[in-house]
Write a structure and sequence with these properties.
By secondary structure, the chain is an alpha/beta fold. Helix content is 45%, strand content 11%.
Length: 432
């Protein structure tokens, strides 16, 4: 895995006095030590404050593939042939157990760092666990999405639901007592829409659903992340110069340590060293990672739908094709560009959609306000300093979720998911 992809994976990713379920957790009793939301987002939790988790060698797990769209065996370009079948990971308990689905965040694959952490947490507590890629990941878009234009939350939920049903059918001997559902970041928004869909189709009858750091207004969250890439950093005027700066800092840090080991614990230690990133550098790193995810969505959606916006019409993509020109074009397209050029036109053509404001209301948690207010099985965990939140977002959650909302004072975006207070609270919620 390249350093850039590793950094992208890491970006998203117990003091018993802290209340497990309350509207707001007191900062003194909470005990999370990182007060900078950018640093928390990148470095997450200090290693000695994380929960004990089972080793991979102690988990009965395997990766599987399933063919959801047989026609794509003959339609996909060569560079996407490896993801014709949807990949997922299943960790099995010995005998009957509850099963929890985990939906990854923006652009993330099922095997990325945060789904892996959540898998170990829930498996250690006795659950079967199934990890699913985000509907915005290139592998899910190619293998599981009907329209390969993610961002319409109802469509994304439908694609996920069909995938979950197919996964269950692939394991008829798996003994399941109850079904549970969670997701983080954009995956939490997806989980809310999947839960609503399940109320109609009744295939799983999810017993409990937990939303971890969801966007409330999807457009606000996207705008917040887009702005980060425009952060002014002294001496930096291009992405190339910025990554040279980051790589230089990492190189000097590893040279001092005497070995190279890229992991979340290392990033926390790195931020404690003299090579640590400034606020502006951390903001730009987070924004740059999101820009790469947005560009990947735009490129994959354009290629699969043959729209000709990034990959010219008639272009034949082979496994050895030089992708540099297409990468450059894709990087010029942020999520706003993707919405304007691909998502909204598809929505209007397929569903007679209207304005941007109408789309935002349709794809955000606003669309589920009544359902969330009246569904006691759904809860939300969020952070007061989460960088994806905008004015009024926490107010909406408080009005809608009531005492099923827990707001932690610190943690940035998903940075405290691996803090022992949070992990204990997650398990407590699912235990009821």
């Amino acid at each position: 895995m390249s350093l850039t992809r590793r950094l992208a994976a890491l970006v998203c990713g117990l003091t018993l006095s802290a209340p497990l379920w309350a509207a707001d957790v007191d900062i003194e009793s909470y005990g999370y030590p990182i007060t900078n939301p950018f640093e928390a987002t990148i470095a997450t939790t200090p290693p000695d404050l994380r929960p004990s988790l089972p080793d991979d060698s102690d988990i009965d797990q395997s990766d599987y593939k399933i063919l959801l769209h047989p026609e794509r065996e003959y339609e996909l370009p060569d560079n996407l042939w490896a993801v014709t079948k949807m990949k997922y990971r299943l960790a099995e308990q010995d005998g009957e157990a509850p099963l929890i689905f985990i939906i990854a965040g923006t652009g993330a694959q099922y095997s990325s760092s945060t789904p892996e952490y959540l898998k170990k947490l829930f498996y250690g507590a006795g659950y079967h666990v199934i990890q699913l890629s985000s509907p915005t990941s290139y592998d899910f878009m190619a293998s599981a999405s009907r329209h390969a234009t993610p961002g319409l939350s109802e469509d994304d939920a439908d694609d996920l639901y069909r995938a979950m049903q197919a996964v269950r059918a692939q394991h008829p001997d798996l003994k399941v007592s109850d079904y549970y559902l969670t997701g983080y970041s954009l995956g939490a928004l997806n989980a809310a829409f999947v839960s609503k869909l399940d109320e109609q189709r009744r295939s799983f009858n999810f017993k409990r659903v937990l939303l971890l750091n969801p966007p409330v207004n999807l457009y606000t969250s996207i705008s917040n992340l887009n702005k980060l890439v425009q952060t002014k950093v002294e001496g930096i005027n291009t992405n190339s110069n910025f990554f040279d700066l980051i790589l230089g800092k990492l190189s000097r840090y590893f040279e001092q340590k005497g070995y190279i080991d890229m992991n979340e614990a290392m990033l926390y230690e790195f931020q404690m060293s003299k090579e640590h990133l400034t606020d502006e550098q951390m903001a730009m790193l987070i924004g740059t990672v999101f820009r790469f995810s947005s560009s990947d969505i735009a490129y994959t959606s354009d290629l699969l739908n043959r729209r000709g916006l990034i990959t010219p019409p008639g272009t034949v993509i082979k496994s050895n094709t030089d992708m540099t020109p297409y990468l450059r074009r894709a990087l010029q397209c942020d999520f706003d560009c993707y919405m304007r050029e691909q998502l909204i036109p598809m929505w209007r053509a397929r569903y007679d959609g209207g304005s941007l404001d109408q789309l935002v209301n349709k794809v955000s948690l606003y669309a589920l306000e009544d359902y969330l207010k009246n569904s006691p099985k759904i809860a939300v965990m969020h952070n007061a300093d989460d960088i994806i939140l905008g004015p009024g977002d926490l107010g909406f959650l408080r009005r809608t979720m009531g005492d099923r909302l827990t707001v932690y004072p610190l943690g940035g975006h998903c940075g405290n998911l691996n803090y022992r207070v949070n992990s204990d609270a997650m398990l407590e919620f699912f235990r009821g």
